[in-house]
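Q: Could you predict the 3D structure of RING-type E3 ubiquitin transferase?
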Amino acid sequence: MAKSGVFEGDPAMVARALELKKELQKLVKAVADDDDVNLEAVERAQRMLCALKDFKLKKSVSLNLRDHHYGQGMVAGTVPEEFKCPLSKELMRDPVIIASGQTFDRPFIQKWLKAGNRTCPRTQQVLSHTILTPNHLIREMIAEWCKNHGIKLPDSVHYINEEGLTEADRDHFLSLLKKMSSTLADQKEAAKDLRLLTKRMPSFRALFSESLGAIPQLLSPFSQSKCKSELHPDLQEDLITTLLNLSIHDNNKKLVAETPMVIPLLMDALRSGTIETRSNAAAALFTLSALDSNKALIGKSGALKPLIDLLEEGHPLAMKDVASAIFSLCIIHENKVRAVRDGAVRVVLKKITSRVHVDELLAILAMLSTSQKAIEEMGELGAVPCLFSIIRETSCARNKENCIAILYTICFNDRSKWKEMREEESTHHTISQLAQNGTSRAKRKASGILDRLNRVVNLTHTA
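A: Sure. Here are the predicted structure tokens for RING-type E3 ubiquitin transferase:
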């Protein structure tokens, strides 16, 4: 990634050069030791060499390390870990302490907090407040270390803006977007860079919400292709994954979902491309569906059908993301209706019967069981014996609870299943055991079924 504000002898640049050299050594060894040619390792090594060449040409740092040592045998030019910001991995210019007691560089932690995060990036502890307190001790230690090594520490105001991005970073961002309208080689290179940058740096995700037309620019290769199948699979995967990365940023969720071409492209990606592309498209829909307005938009767009189709295919890499997306979308009633109409009950019950992702799929089935049509389908597809068998087999209290909740709804809406339930209770005492030992909700549902069945028996005897 391009940098600006580079000063002669900048320790961050020196540290980065050392990291590049170490990584390059590992990659070369991996390529040499592997019986087959690892193309990814070769490409990464080439990028490392180009980066090192840039360092040399710009004369930003000197890679000729002397035998001078600092502290406990530290090589001159290597930044002590305690002087690096945990977020930027670079020498801190303005160290500040947050509520968890951890120290960060001010612009980077400001950006973290501005994005809506209220936890410590290092400890994940929830912050009691967001006041930033200058860490004078660390700042003085950094200043002394820089003085001993003849390094000029630049003023943080001139080094970086409050969002943790340099102007060169912004220029690089714009240049990558411009490449998306260039040749296939440029598109592939830019897409891969954007995928990595939006994965690693929240600040790059935020740039998309600040830049008018950035998302359509990102997706311009789709517009240029006469049909989706013409798009290179790797390029499609990188672009869809970048959309997933962008959707993680709260401020982007509405923007991404409401960009007209996004949802149709994610739906196309669910049907085609590599399995990683399809899985990441499902994950993107799940992430976007955190907003209720997006749930409605995604459901109206018809995304549930390709999600259900992908679930039916059952590829292990995609199952969890697909199940999560379907569950989240079906929180609103309109999408439950759509999911039932699009065959979700049959597909979900088939997977559960095969004991595939039972935890996630039972939660979906329990949610769909509020639909009368879904209940009717469950009865026709043999859901009752399947659910009872899971209750007997599983040790998971949550799964038992979801099973009995579905059976409760079936019991009160489908009289034809009472006989099966009475026989199950007579043979295995499944319902009464759950009424005694289940979760509080499971006890209520199991007791409700027993009461209903007992009343039916009593009425029959009285008659």
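Q: Anything worth pointing out?
A: Residues 267 and 303 are 6 Å apart (CA to CA).
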